Amino acid sequence: MADTTGKSNITGSSLKVREPLVVTAERIANFCIAVGETNPLYVDPAAAAAGPHLGIIAPPAFVAAFRYADDVFESLPAFARGGLMAGIDIELHAPIRAGDSIHVSSVLKETYEKTGRTGTMIFAVVRSTLTNQKGEVVAHVDHRMMNRPKNRKTSAASRR
Questions:
Q1: Using one digit for the tens of pLDDT, what is the confidence trace for 104-158?
Q2: C-alpha closest to that of 17 among 69, 57, 80, 56
Q3: pLDDT tens-digit readout, 76-96
Q4: If you average pLDDT over every residue of the chain, what do you get?
Q5: I want to staple 95 with a disulfide (CB 3.0 to 4.6 A). Which of 14, 57, 61, 82 is the partner?
Q6: How many helices (H) and strands (E) does the chain have?
């Protein structure tokens, strides 16, 4: 499932699906507390009921809390030792409400290499599609991860 550089050749493949997560008002409130979110549309039931969504919805950043497929690293040998989160891109489509059951499906969108002053880096982008119990797409989340090739040789010149 990988080429000689450790990069995956499963681009576009679906990854193992996780069980749907039921979003609760408590989960939304705890997320808001954790990130310091104070917008009344997310934390105040009375204000939210009078707002455009007629009730509390999760803040946009809430979608970043959903994990991608469990087997993503099993499918990416270059990341078997772990890696670094190199970024996240979010496309929002519909609000997430308390009571929604969110299903996450993920695919390996792309892998690519970049060479910087410290050497070669391998990147993988896992695209997760979040859908609610009605089958509506609520968001697409692209998780970008970075790692060094497994057989990287470190020299004094590459560390300068």
A1: 988 888 889 999 898 999 998 989 999 999 999 999 999 898 988 876 554 444 4
A2: 69
A3: 777 777 788 899 999 999 999
A4: 83
A5: 57
A6: 3, 5
Instruction: Decide: 143 and 85 in contact? Cβ < 8 Å.
Output: yes
Instruction: Give SS3 for 21.
Output: strand
- Report d(CA 155, CA 160) in Å as an integer: 9
Triad 100, 102, 105: Cα angle to 5°: 165
pLDDT of residue 102 exceeding 60: yes
- For residue 90, list its beta bridge partners: 141
* Distance between CA atoms of residues 154 and 141, nearest Å: 34
Instruction: Give the number of residues written for the chain.
Output: 160
Token pair 């989340």 is found at: 141
Q: Give this prediction's pTM.
A: 0.77
* CA 42-44-50 angle, 5° bins: 90
The string of DSSP codes covering 85-145 is EEEEEEEE-S--BTT-EEEEEEEEEEEEEEEETTEEEEEEEEEEEEE-TTS-EEEEEEEEE
| Cβ–Cβ < 8 Å for 5, 76 | no
Cβ(65)–Cβ(99) below 8 Å: no
